[in-house]
Amino acid sequence: MFRYDYLWAREEASGNRRGLKQRPSCVILALGAGQAVYLAISHEPPREGQVAVEIPPEVRTIAGLDGARQWVVVSEFNFDRHGPRLVAIPGRRGQKRYGTLPPSFFEEVKSAFLAQRKAGTQKKVDRTKDAA
After folding, report:
1. What is the pLDDT of residue 38?
2. Is residue 72 classed as helix, strand or coil in its secondary structure?
3. What is the CATH number for 46?
4. Which domain holds residue 59?
5. How far apart are the first and last CA of the chain?
6. Average of pLDDT values for 23-30?
7. Is 0.85 surpassed by the pTM of this model?
């Protein structure tokens, strides 16, 4: 998990090229050519039409997140080059990586992500063509 300049689909639809807020994001899939699929992590409960997996308290601790309730949103994703939009975590001296999700929780998130892919309802924000 990394701190990333995540661009919500609704922000892109409004003409934004950068996310309005840098946030923790989960890399669900790393591809060749340095590309990755990022899922947003949010303190906000899922909005209407969003699908998300709540992060259990013990997983938040292991992953290096704060203690507030958080969700991994699986109903949309950013497709991007890995690296250029990563940003430093506040208060952690240039560190960009939070930690790693435990394998069992990662599998839960991956299954929810793949179910959304199969349903054909995910929103994709392709940022590979934009300059970072």
Report:
1. 98
2. strand
3. 2.30.30
4. 2-126
5. 19
6. 96
7. yes
